[in-house]
Structure formats: structure tokens, C-alpha cells
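Risk register update: the risk of archive-format incompatibility is retired. Evidence:
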Amino acid sequence: MDVAEKATSFQQFSGSCSRTDSKTVVLHKPTPLPVAWWICGLEGLGEGFSVSQDAGIIGPCSEFGMRLCFEATKVDDIKKTFQVEVSDAVKLLGIVQVESIQVFVEAYDIGLDINISTGRGYVDFGALKVLGEAKQVLTLKNRGKYEIVYSFKLEAADTNIPDLASHFTVHPQKGMLASSGDSMHVHLLFHPKREMSIEDKAILQCQVIDPSISEGDEIAAVIPIRVSGKAVCSKYSISPASLINFGVVLKGTRKTRTFTLENKGVLAFKFHICRMPPKPSAHQLQSVQSCMSEDTRTNAVLAKKSKCLLQQDAGPVIATRFTLGMFTVYPGFGSIPPGGLQTVTVECRAATLGKCEEHLSIDIQGRAPTDNPLGIPYTLFAESCFPAFVVDDIESIFEEHRICGNKKLYQSLQTLQDKGVFITDENRFVFTIVVVGHQAEARFRICNMNKVPCNVVLSVKPISTQDSEQSLLEGLHPLPRTEIEFWHTRTVALQCVNDQLLSPRAMEMAEVLEKANSCYWPMLQSLLRDVSAGLEEATDVGLHLQQLRILLEKLEQANYLQLQPCLDRVLCAVCLLPAHCQYYSSPARVIMLLRNICNLLIEMVEPQGWRQLQWEGTGQTEPPPFPPAALLRDL
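Archived output:
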């Protein structure tokens, strides 16, 4: 009998993962006689060796393959021999041939150390946001005698996440480690595309391959690596939810409202507030909707496209404080920790009349990709109004009274039994016939057609609109006391008006008109200036006329012999009046005053007065004849 190979070599690793290797020893019988064979000394090889058949008969001109198996249980180096003894088929001749077969075995160990950057016995990514990214480093070192190949594989295990591998990346995923060489760093990236939770699960497997084995891709060992990680979206609440309505705001005033952003998640998030971008085009909307219709693997694409649309259309600029129309919003950006609150203040300054509606976009980092991809909408609304009542609808105000266009028409209607008549040309309401000792009453209608309340203050004050020479122009003959009384009455009237305009309520209204830049503000300024200047003039003239009033009273009481000295003092005071009173420095006023003095003298020398005055100054028994009054007036 012939033995094809009399030396068999095994190269096997030992470890917890059992693996059996086998070699075939071919026994050949080239002669026409059958032979019997059996193995001797197999037990001397040691543990781990076995054969498929330890004895048998080989027919004439045939061969038999005996399988010699070995399973390594420890690191060892074996060089031993066993024998195959041969005899005739019925073993009558005894042992006729002995073949020695040498066995060489090298049993070695595969040593792969895996160290995790966290310093724990497992990979812990902690909590991170959806579409975020976290990285851990695995350090691999080969402690064995020969080089090995590693390969990482992700298994769903007990996580119930069917597309688990799409949320992780291993780099490099496969490689070779030289024996006792340098360590190799493998990066494990966690980039979740949806919310998930993995708690200490052996989802990562490191497969060890021995390249020295002829099969090449056969896995020699599998090392499980436990992984923990949690992916969440930003959880938030906004209160009030979507609208701040300031309602009606008085023009020129300012109102403040707030809304709050609350972080209800486990991670901090950043927020950014800006103007809502213009409505996307149909093509852009179709692009976003197509992303939303796909499965969750496209969430990252959706988020990127949404952000791109927001930046292209609106071009938001991050600002601590920004203004939209009537509204000022601050802060415009910030960060909120878990469980924290951020109060956002909105100021409404009603500078212009009318409605104002603005739309904000609130971007919260890390929210669900399908949650308002173009920004969370928020609306601000206010309407600015000015307090006023109807003043141009004369028919409505005086609906219970007759309205006349001019004074002549009013005089023709005085016989009518009306309570009063409003004259449009003079903007004056006149009570018709009022009996002395009785009280007349009239009602006016005041309407507030705006949306804000207004305070109405009605006051009745005597206001003289006539000039001191009005009576002269009307053909009358006023005396000097008429001029003095005119300025006294004017001073009292203007003082009443001035007190009313300077009252706290009136000044508050003036401040509102000034801040609102109202069209009524210049008119009010002009009125204040005119009243102040008129009051100053009336006060100054009345003060300087006071001395003249005393002299005129003495003149009226003087007899004929005392008339000349009193008249001289009066004329002296008139001459000094323009020099000391700037408002009485015009010649027209001095001439008017002199005419009034002349009227006084004429009145004193009327027929009875002249004769009496002259008679009292002489010792005559009868009064002298008097000159004509017309002659005196002409003089």
C-alpha cells in the first residue's frame, strides 16, 4: 500500500470560538490483492485529534481517503508521528507493512483589543438632535502573532429599527491589522434622521478574519460592541400660540405685549426670529412637498431644502432688535436650555393711522423637519386711531335746530319759535328770543365715530372779537371809558382762554398731538401764540390806561374853572402813553383816544351841560347861551 503524503501540517488558532480543521491522507493499493489497514499511535498525538476511520480494507487497485481532524484548544506547537499498519485482508500474514505519517501543528491565538473613547465598556452617544451628528473613536490593536482582518457590521438586534445601518457610519469599515503593530482608530458616527432610542444594545459587531486560512473570507471570531444613544427633536411651546392682537391703539402712543418660547425637550436649542419670507414659488412648493411625501430617510434633504428656500427668499439677518411696520421685536435670537423660558417683547408704536399686520417667522433649531419647514408663522396686528368727534357734519350736530347761512337770514327768522339758530358763515349759535329772567336750553349732538374713546371738555367763556375802534367805525361816539373798559374786558376774556389752554388736560392733549405729528398740532401752536400775545398786549395796555382813567374821572367831575388844568394833565398822560406802552405807540391808537376825549368834552358842553358849566364859573344870575353842538363836533 502507498501513502500519498507522509507529512501533514495544521495551522490553527485557538479561542472561545471553536473551529475544526481537517486533512486527508490518501491510502492507495496499486496491486490486485486487497489489504487491511489500521492506525496505531493516534492517542499519542494528544487532545484535539481525531480520524474519520481508524481501520478498514482497501480493494485491489483502489484508494481510500482518511480524514485527520484537529481542533485547537490552547496555544501549542506539535510535531508527532502516528503509524498506519498493513496486512492481508484476513490478517493471516500479520503486519506486512508500516507507514509512518508525521503531523505538524501550530496552534496560535488571535488577540484583538478594542478600546472605546468614552472609557466605558460600551459606546455611549448620549442625547443629540435629529439630523445632528456625534462621533466616538474605537481603538483597535492586534496582540496576536499573525496579521488579521477586521470588518464591522451593524445588526438591528432588539431595537426594532429596520433601517438602523442608515443612521450610523463606520470608517474605515474594514481593514487589516499587522501583528503587534500600531493601533488603528475606527470612527463610529451617529447621524440619526428620525427620533430613536438605543439603550445598551449590541448592535455593532466586529468580525475577525484570519487571512492565512485558505478560505480567506471565513469569519474567525465575532466581537459584539454595545451601543447607547438617543435622538430627539426640539420640543417647544409658544404662548400665545400664533397671534398678538394689540387691538385699537391711540396714535402717538406705545403698547407692549410679550410672548414666550418654552423648551420642553431634553436638549437646549437656538431660536431665530425674522420677517416671514415671501410666499415660495409653485416650483419651490412642489420641491418641498415632494420631499415631505417621501419616507423619513429624506428628512435631512427636506431640512436642507427648507433652510435654503428661507435664506434665498427672505435673506434674514440675525439682529438682536428689529422693526417691522409699527412693531419692534426683541430679542431676535437666543438659546434656551431644557425647561427654560424666553420672553420675547413686542412694542407697538402707533405712528401712522390705519391697520398694520405683520408676519414673523420663528426658526427653532432641531425641530422636526416636517414642522413648518419655512419657519413657524406668527402674526402681529394693530390698528392706530386718533381720538376725535365729528365736527364737519353741521346737520348732525345741530339736528334739533335751524341752520342759517348768514346773519341776514337769521334776522328774518327771529320771529320763529326756535330755541336757537346756527349761523354757518360766522360759525356761531345764537339763542333766538329769551325772556329776561328765564332760562333757554339747547341740545347739540356730539358723535365719536372712531374706535378709541375721547374726552370732550365743553366750556363757555366770554371772548371779545371786536377792536376798540369798532364803535367809531359804526358811527357811534364812544367816550374814553369805552376804550378803558374794552381793554379790561379783553384782558379778562383772554386770561380765561389762556388758563383753559394751559390746564393739565389741555397740555396732555397737546403732548399727544405733538408726538403724533398731527395736522391739528400747528393750529394749536398758532392758537397758543395768538392768545399769549393778545393777553400780553391787553395786560400792558390796561396797566398804562389805569392812570389815564383816574385823570378822566377827575375831568368829568371838574367845574368850569378847573377844566383847563384837568385837561392839561389828561393830554400830558396821552402824550406819555406811546412812549411807555409799546402796544399803544401807533398814531392810529393815539388819534382814536383823542377822539374819545373830544366826545367827552362835547358831551360835557351839550346845551344844558354847557350853560351849567359856564354859569357855575361866573357870578351871573342866568346861564349864557350855548353854541351849537354840531359846531363843536366840527371843531
